[in-house]
Amino acid sequence: MDKLFKAAQVAISNCLMIKKGESVLVITDQPLRKIGYAFRDAAEEAATEAMLLEILPRSSNGEEPPGPVAKFMKDFDVLIIPTSKSMSHTNARREACEAGARCVTLPGILEDTMERTLNADYQEIARRSTKLAEMVNRGKIARVTTPAGTDITMGLEGRECHADTGLVHNPGDFSNLPAGEAYIAPMEGTASGVMVVDGSMVGKVKEPIRIVVKDGFATQITGGSSAEELERMLEPFGQPGRNVAELGIGTNHKARIVGSVLEDEKVMGTVHMALGDNKSMGGNVSVQSHLDGILLKPTLWIDQGKIMEDGELKI
Predict the structure, then answer these.
(1) Based on the domain organization, do 159 and 27 belong to the same domain?
(2) Amino acid 1: pLDDT
(3) pTM recorded for the entire structure
(4) In the prediction, which pLDDT does 48 show?
(5) What is the pLDDT of residue 315?
(6) Quick check: 294 and 265 in contact, CB under 8 A?
């Protein structure tokens, strides 16, 4: 049996629990068409009505799909969205979930990632992610340091940490696939310090990207070609694109750094921080850009307690 089809079958039965008679819409684009069809075929086998809709590739993570597509999305029980740019942080996705659709997005997923990580034990990942989210929710201030030079603090009060479990069983549920993180939107204006991205951000970083953060915004970005590429990607979005949007902790034991942020941010023993949109996480910044940077071997304090040291979880 085709490995992609088999991985799609696992996701459909375990992660989405699609039942006979449910309507399923797969939204894809040309770069991920093969994966889109694997999901369509697996969904067709499990449900009674599965459709595939192909859109033009978007130019940034968080760019909205065409208006008619956004309307169409609200009419389905299940949405599966493997696209080259992320639709996770779009109004279209948020509104479809509010209308009762359960949804998974797989932005930029590599065939290897799909074959290797979608058959992870998501019950175990869910337990780990939920426990970490509970620990983060008990704190008011987070501090992250890394051997590469990261030292940044941010306020968490008034925000909720979410567990990305990969178990999308109830109306309105949403997750990335592969899943596996606990994530929170720090309070706007509170992040301050230095963030050194040495894992990946715009693909695997060739040399670390050093980001100076002041009053919640990235004010200076230095490094080599990866830093220049990041500046180019942020340029169209002005200050909102530089908002420190997310603090996330990877919890997927099957994920590894491959240069695709979708998988890289789930790697157990890493922390990631994002710039841009945080509306999907309970924040107040809505912008058509969300870029995650992965930090290696982090130490993470929540208030005075370490929940990770040099990339080792303390749970």
Answers:
(1) no
(2) 59
(3) 0.89
(4) 74
(5) 83
(6) yes
What CA–CA distance (Å, rounded) separates 185 from 154? 10
Which residues lie below 8 Å from residue 192, measured CB to CB, with a gap of 6+?
A: 152, 153, 154, 213, 214, 215, 216
Average pLDDT over the chain, rounded to an integer:
95
Is residue 117 within 8 A of residue 164, CB to CB? The reply is no
Q: Is the pLDDT of residue 28 over 90?
A: yes
Distance, in Å, from the CA atom of 19 to the CA atom of 43, rounded to the nearest integer, reads 10
Tokens representing 249 are: 């902790």
Q: What is the CATH number of the domain that holds 102?
A: 3.40.1830.10
For 241-248, what is the mean pLDDT? 98
The answer on 28 and 151 residing in a single domain is: no
Mean pLDDT confidence for 229-244 = 97
Q: Which of 117, 145, 179 represents a domain boundary (last residue)?
A: 117
Measured CA to CA, the distance from residue 245 to residue 186 in angstroms comes to 7
CA–CA–CA angle 272, 274, 280 (5° rounding):
110
Look up residue 80 and give its DSSP letter.
E
- In one-letter notation, the amino acid at residue 167 is L
Cis amide linkage into residue 186, ω under 30° from 0: no
Q: Is the pLDDT confidence value at 49 over 90?
A: no
CA distances 287 to 154, 267, 277, Å, are 21, 26, 5
Sheet with 23-28, strands from edge to edge, namely: 49-54, 23-28, 78-81, 102-105, 174-176
Residue 109 has, within 13 A of its CA and on its CB side, a CA count of 35
Indicate if 86 and 135 belong to the same structural domain: no
163-179 pLDDT, tens digit per residue, is: 999 999 999 999 989 99
Pair (142, 167) in one structural domain: yes
- Of 117, 136, 157, which residue constitutes the final position of a domain? 117
Structural domain total, the chain: 2
Q: What is the pLDDT of residue 47?
A: 77
Burial of 305 (0-12, 13-18, 19+ CB in 10 A): exposed
Do 182 and 239 fall into the same domain?
Answer: yes
